Each structure stands twice: as structure tokens, then as C-alpha cells.
Amino acid sequence: MDFEQVIYSRRAVREYTREPVSETALRRLADAAVQAPSATNEQPWIFSIVRDRATLARISEAAKAHVLAHPPAGVVLGHLHEVVENPEFDLLYGAPALIVISSATQGHWAVENCALAAENLMLAARADGLGSCWIGFIQGWLGTAEGKAAIKVPAVALPVAPIIVGHPTVEPTAVPRKTPEIIWA
Ligand SMILES: Cc1cc2nc3c(=O)[nH]c(=O)nc-3n(C[C@H](O)[C@H](O)[C@H](O)COP(=O)(O)O)c2cc1C
Predict the structure, then answer these.
(1) Which residue's CA is minimally distant from atom 4 of ligand 1?
(2) For the domain that residue 22 is a member of, what is the CATH number?
(3) How many angstroms separate the CA atoms of 120 and 36, rounded?
């Protein structure tokens, strides 16, 4: 798959097989992620990789309760309220692995640094035939003391990018893009 194909075919994947992702494959994704630029070349990234099914289920449950109690600012849950309230609903879509990219410091560009690494990681996953999806709904809970403890990052760290990874069951259909709004300034 060439570079353009990778960019144009990456999709948010929400259905996975039960097949685990190997440690080697997960390390490759982290290696691709750290090729991202970072402000003042800080390279502040920490990658928490969760593969234990019980821990993944616990994260989904705790994050669901947190989202309902503290909906992300500016996000109207709407029908998602019912979805999240459903005890059967797994915020992590049954994925066999969750990679959380955190910044070791809460510096001025912590979010930008982690988001850039996240896109690299998701594109690398696509190139390797893996699916991925950023799960913003667990971010709030990951930022709590309990969340940070679950992904084993220090209290001073800032968890930014939770990304599930696994083998897709289907190729998701493309979500159409708006034409870029360009201002020739
Ligand atoms: C910051 C961020 C948070 C997201 N949070 C979620 C989420 O909690 N659950 C989910 O299913 N998808 C989530 N997504 C995936 C988006 O819904 C998805 O990228 C978007 O619909 C476009 O689809 P595509 O990635 O297949 O092109 C998130 C994406 C981003 C960038």
C-alpha cells in the first residue's frame, strides 16, 4: 500500500476479530508514532498498552460512568446517552488492545505532540493491515487519578490519545469528507 492509499483508506474501525495483536506489531506502531514532530523536540510520549481483557472491560465500564456524570464540555450526548447507559455497550468495541498516548509533562504543546503521534500510529496500523479508532469518550476518565493508575502513568502525565487497535472484521465504508475550505490569504 503506498502512502496515498494509506491516508485515503484509513477508517475508524469499530468491529474486531478476537485475534490478539502481537507485541512486535504493537511496538512497530509505537516506533512509527515517535517519528512525529514534537514542539522543541521534547518527545514527551508515553505509550500505555493494555491487552488484558478484564482490564479493558474495567476501563470501558469506569469511563462510561464518568462520561454520564461528566459529559465532555460542548458535546451533546443526545441518543448516545442511551448507548452509553447500555450495560452491554463496550466503549472499546471489543478491540484486543488499547494504546494510550500520554504526555509525560503537561507543557504548552502536550496535546499537539500526542495528537501528531496518534495520527502516525493510526496510519501505521492501516499500513500493517490493522484497524484503529481514537476513543475520545474515555479521555475524561483517563485523566482522573483512577484512570492514570489504570494505565500506569505518573500523576503529572497527561493522557491525550486513547486508540484501540485490532484486526478488523470488515472494511468500514468511507465517511465522506467536506471539500477543504481554502482561503488564499
Ligand atoms: C478526538 C477524536 C475522538 C473520537 N472519539 C471517538 C469515540 O469515542 N468513539 C468512536 O466510536 N469514534 C471516535 N472517534 C472517531 C471518529 O468518529 C471518526 O474518526 C470520524 O467519524 C471519521 O471517520 P473515519 O475516521 O472513518 O474517517 C474519534 C475521533 C477523534 C479524532
Answers:
(1) 136
(2) 3.40.109.10
(3) 7
**Distance from the Cα of residue 45 to its chain's centroid:** 14
Q: Is 104 exposed, middle or buried (0-12, 13-18, 19+ CB in 10 A)?
A: middle
137 CA: nearest ligand 1 atom: 8
Q: Apex CA 20: angle with CA 68 and CA 44, to 5°?
A: 65
| Residue whose CA is at the smallest distance from ligand 1 atom 5 | 136
Q: How many domains does the chain have?
A: 1
**Which domain covers residue 142, as residue numbers?**
17-166
Q: Amino acid letter at 119?
A: E
Whether 38 is covered by a domain: the verdict is: yes
pTM over 0.70: yes
Residue 53: all three cell numbers together? 481483557
Neighbours of 81 (CB within 10 A): 13
Amino acid at 100: V
pLDDT digits (tens, 9 = 90+) for 102-131: 999 999 999 999 999 999 999 999 999 999
The pLDDT, as a whole number, for residue 79 is 76
